Amino acid sequence: MSRETRSRKKDNNPGVRPVLKVELSEKNKRLKVIAIICFLAIALIAFGIGMFRFLSKDPGWQEISVNVSNNKTCAQEFTLQYHLGASGISATAENKKITALYTDTCEKAYSLFSAGEEFDDTVNVCTLNKNPNKTYTVDPVLYAAFETIADSGNRSIYLGPAYGYWQSLFNCESDADAADFDPLVNEELSEYYNEIAAFARDAEQVNLELLGDGKVRLNVSKAYLAFAENNGISVYMDFFWMKNAFIADYIADTLTKAGFTKGALSSYDGFSRCLDGSDTSYSLNLYHRRGGTVYPMAVMDYTGPKSIAVMKDFPLNKADTLNYYVTENGETRYPYADLSDGKCRAALTYLAAYSDSKGCADIILSLSSLYIADSFDADSFASLKDKGIYGIYADGDRIVHTEKSVSLRDVFSNAEITYTVE
Question: pLDDT tens across 30-40, in order?
Fold first, then answer.
């Protein structure tokens, strides 16, 4: 749209008075300058006080947030509670340092473990998925994660194509939509899951080869490559539900190495690392499910350092909808896929395991074959004590624990507490 401008003729001037020029004396000039300086000083002091209050931190427990940037981060999936000033230094200075380190670590973790998104100057899981049978050098953090999985013998990471369907299912808003992704109601999809699981179980079909010095190669057979092309598969491996266990260990170990040990880190999906080696008491809320109702089971008090991993077949809060879907008749779908057929499976409604010496990744890799099963092998679970891993679960009205000295309170009514005797 054009804009028209009209000029006023001189003879139409309404007769505005001419500007009166007044010469200030040198004394008045000095007073004016002094006044301006005073006003500026007051404004700067007020601004400084405001910024100081915004940037400063009081000593005590605070939730640490990452610095805002354009980089993608996993920080939204974690909570870091930290006791600022407990180490004897300024809470504000400590907050600045831990925030910077936490920010960098969360951004790096996001880029390294992403299975479906590539990043500049980073060889990550997605890079390997898109370039099978090629050799790459990966970051030591990712290489260590691959080593941990290889040492465990767990091949759940190769259920990548099935995990993609499960994630789509969790994003559904109705059973009609979910039927396209749910192998428990879709027979054609069930057969597809069986085929994926068969590939995942076979190291000759798909396997990440560790070549030393940070070099890896995702080996994929010709048969699997052909199957993938015919079915639109681009993700062969994915940490999926185990991802935050590895990330929690990475963040916790990085903070500990830097001397930040007065706090605790937890993810929304059940992985926690207590960094604190003092006698400060921490607690873990335990739950169990009866039918469609979830109950508080007990509270476990503990001191750190400690790693904790929780597995459950029900959503507990709004964030859990990222990994769960509840059907209209109350059945639940969850992320723990079985290598036998790619379908979700849970031997217990709720299981919490912890260790003073192992990380979350070691715990979850030790638990997965016991939890993702038709029935729970209580004896095998109890034997994890030999590896320094203990746990608690509900069996009907019994609370079973494998550490003799465990501290439980607020136990649900009529519960029988049972210690698994060696």
Answer: 554 555 555 54
Query: In degrees rounded to 5, what are phi and psi of residue 139?
Result: -60, 145
Dihedral pair phi/psi, residue 406, rounded to 5°? -60, 145
Residue-wise pLDDT tens digits, 231-277: 999 999 999 999 999 999 999 999 999 999 999 999 999 999 999 99
State pTM to two decimals.
0.86
100 vs 57, higher pLDDT: 100
